[in-house]
Here is the input.
Amino acid sequence: MTGNLFVYRPGGPSGGFVFNDWQALINVMNGVQGRKIIEFDDSLVVPPTPAGCRIPAGQWPMKDVMWAGFGPRSGVPRTTVVIQRRAQFTDLRMIGGQITIVNMAAAPDPSPVSDFVNSDQVQIGMRDDCGNTQLVNQGDVAMFDVGPHTVLFLLQNCLCGMPTASVPNPKPLVQQSQGSQITFNLLGQNQTGPNLVRSAPNASVLFGALSSSAQVAFDQSSITNSGGTFNFGPQGRIQRQVIPLPPAPPATASQSFNKPNVLIRCNGHQPGFTQVLPSIASGFTIASTAVQLYSGGQEVVVAEVGGGEKLKVSPSGTDTIDGDTGPVHIGKHGSKTFASDGVSNWITISEVRRPA
Here is the structure.
């Protein structure tokens, strides 16, 4: 055990750098200079004690401190940390992996983290081989209140505001005041939940998907309903999922899918069929949940690989392809690539035809 690693393990004995009492841990940690890590371990928390490591009300200094979790364990992917009402932290800017943080703050409680200044940075998550981080806001007070400031959140492999079985409708995780500018840079396999930020007039949010596998929920109305604005940065491509997956034969009927970036192999021989694209605004989802995924700029490739002439592609509902609600034709051994505008229109950005 090194002198800058502190283990918070409720339900077990204390000794060395292992603590079962939060106040005692803070007292010792405050006497150590430099970077420090708190590893939360809820493996000894048993019923009827509520699940997870619970942080009590109080003012807790976190300068140069990173949080991390003990895990994964059999059947437990992450340690759970419960921030109880009226718990506040100063200088909490680093949260590592293998940890689920549930914020219980409710009005009139203050936000647990609200001491931001302009150009602050918050780093959440770790490298691809170090597990992921999950943050969920159960109460109606945001975990992070950035005020009127400009703040950058670096999220890597993070389940940020995603619904859980115990919190199916989480409240906004971040709050901003008038004039604030927030950027979320998303690296790795991020999944960003709906209504992540409670905004204010003349405030703005930018979702920057720096990793092509990052996903952002379509519904961010808690920003726009408050008079703020949000935008999506460029999203990269990933290797496309092939449907049907070989060695299965090409499709002879419309295929269902709820993820962007797919390649659909089709057989357009008689009698042919029409491949229907998902609804842009509601047909794409994150994981196995019903969280609608923002799909702007993402692509669907439909290819005729069977040598038939009877393949068509149609938008869903009131969506359009190049502004038209009707189907488009794909000839034998041809293909078309459709890019979503994120609202209701598929734009044909590439077409391949068999040479005459």
Notes: The chain has two domains: 5-232, 241-352. The mean pLDDT is 92. Residues 120 and 151 are 5 Å apart (CA to CA).
